[in-house]
Amino acid sequence: VEDIVVGKTRIRDEDNFYGTIVYLGCVASAKKANEVYAGIAWDDTTRGKHDGSVICRRTNQLVRHFHVPHAHG
């Protein structure tokens, strides 16, 4: 985690999709509040599943951890 630079670190997943880490931290919708997650802005728009927002488990409100175009993250 120490080597990751948000907005600069590039990754490749097991299916050879490439992206940039745009968020690193806890996520409001996670079952384990202290787990660290990476938000990825995928180069291929067919890879993404969301836009960086989630519904908070505690408040039931929308929380945006990062912003990418719809379904790119």
What does this structure look like?
- The chain is mainly β and 73 residues long.
- It contains no helices and 5 strands.
- The strands form 2 sheets. It has a 3-stranded antiparallel sheet, with no helix packed on it.
- It is globular and about 35 Å long.
Strand content: 25-35%
Anisotropy-based shape: globular
Number of helices: 0
The secondary structure category is: mainly beta
* Secondary-structure element series: EEEEE
Summarize the biggest pleated sheet.
3 strands, antiparallel
| Average pLDDT level | 89
**Spans of at least 5 consecutive residues with low confidence:** none
What level of helicity do the residues show?
under 10%
Read across the widest sheet, the strand sequence of neighbours is: 1-2-3
The number of strands is 5
The radius of gyration is 12 Å
Q: Gap between N and C termini, in Å?
A: 19 Å
Map the helices and strands.
Layout: E1 10-12, E2 18-25, E3 37-42, E4 53-55, E5 62-64
